Amino acid sequence: METLEVSAKQFRAKQGSFFDMADKGRQIVIKRKMKQSYVLTPVEDEDDEEDDFVVTPELLAKIERAEQQMREGKYTECRTIEELNNFLDAL
Do residues 37 and 29 touch, judged by C-beta distance below 8 A? Predict the structure, then answer.
């Protein structure tokens, strides 16, 4: 999925166009000067059973790093609830 980054000013000027693009599956990122950015995502009908989850390039990179760490044995394995609780308490 291609991502389009627009300024808040551009978004205000052409909201309808950006809503149409989001409806067609395009990811729209609205950037504000020196502030938070936002993703324009359509809300699906309650009857739609599809999960609405976007895998961003940043998330994909994190997943790939985690997989590499797993292959290198750099993880903590918890086989019981007690081991998990002990691990979480140690954090």
Answer: yes
